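for the recovery benchmark. tokens below, seq after
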């Protein structure tokens, strides 16, 4: 890095790469650009990239219209964003955050490629995975001490939390750099987690959502009644089934799979109803239908 990190000390991050420009990737790129950092965003093809770019730029426009950004701040943030379909354009990045689909093979492939193309000797390679053990991603590289998890929460520009997940091989300087960037530049509240599937939040959240899905699946209660019980009876801002739709039922299933694969505990097992909904493309808000119906126009 330009101001290089010493062992256990953070480096200053000025150039960030974000791999993936879906809901999470675009949010991560947005907060980085607003923090004054030069950002390269990569997607797999021009069509997907255009969609992600429109999502990101639309979010910045809404932030300005709501008075959260001045016109000058908006223009400056846009000027810091660069878009590509070539992972090779990550070569000069000091921190690269992977935010592709929640699939271990897809993420492993990204990390193996980044290991070949990112040239900064002490660059940090981070994953936004919500559940996959970091060690499995780190071992796709020849620099596992520079790999860790930086798990953001959606919507990234709104929610302050970030889970920082080092593996057993992550170096202290890598941890220090990632935490300093998240807290200092991005203003996130960082919590630490051991490298176990699900980390802190999803290890608690997924069994809760799975239990709610089983209630609906068995006819014990309707989705509306389950969600009303938790919002009105427990003062949760969103019920578990509406939350699953918001997260994405495919992402929810992937997180449950990762947890069950690691712990083999029944509370993590994917309910057949969830599996069938994902198989049928009923993914929640992003597809227009999950446990509820949505206007995706």
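predicted aa per position
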């Amino acid at each position: 890095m330009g101001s290089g990190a010493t062992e256990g000390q953070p480096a200053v991050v000025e150039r960030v790469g974000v791999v993936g420009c879906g809901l999470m990737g675009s949010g991560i790129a947005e907060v980085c650009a607003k923090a004054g950092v030069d950002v390269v965003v990569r997607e797999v093809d021009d069509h997907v990239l255009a969609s992600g770019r429109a999502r990101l730029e639309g979010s910045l426009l809404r932030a300005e219209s709501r008075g959260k950004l001045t016109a000058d701040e908006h223009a400056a943030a846009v000027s810091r964003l660069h878009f590509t379909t070539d992972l090779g354009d990550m070569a000069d990045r000091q921190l690269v955050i992977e935010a592709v689909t929640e699939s271990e093979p897809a993420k492993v492939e990204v990390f193996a490629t980044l290991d070949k193309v990112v040239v900064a000797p002490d660059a940090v390679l981070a994953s936004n995975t919500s559940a996959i053990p970091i060690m499995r991603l780190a071992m796709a590289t020849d620099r596992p001490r520079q790999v860790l998890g930086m798990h953001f929460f959606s919507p990234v520009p709104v929610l302050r939390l970030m889970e920082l997940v080092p593996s057993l091989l992550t170096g202290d300087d890598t941890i220090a750099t990632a935490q300093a960037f998240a807290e200092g530049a991005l203003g996130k509240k960082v919590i630490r987690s051991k490298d176990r599937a699900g980390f802190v939040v999803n290890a608690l959240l997924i069994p809760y959502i799975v239990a709610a899905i089983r209630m609906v699946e068995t006819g014990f209660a309707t989705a509306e009644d389950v969600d009303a019980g938790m919002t009105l009876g427990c003062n949760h801002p969103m019920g578990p089934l509406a939350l699953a739709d918001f997260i994405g039922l495919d992402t929810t299933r992937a997180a449950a799979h990762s947890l069950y694969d690691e712990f083999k505990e029944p509370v993590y097992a994917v309910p057949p109803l969830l599996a069938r909904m994902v198989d049928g493309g009923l993914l929640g808000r992003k597809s227009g239908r999950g446990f509820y119906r949505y206007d995706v126009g």
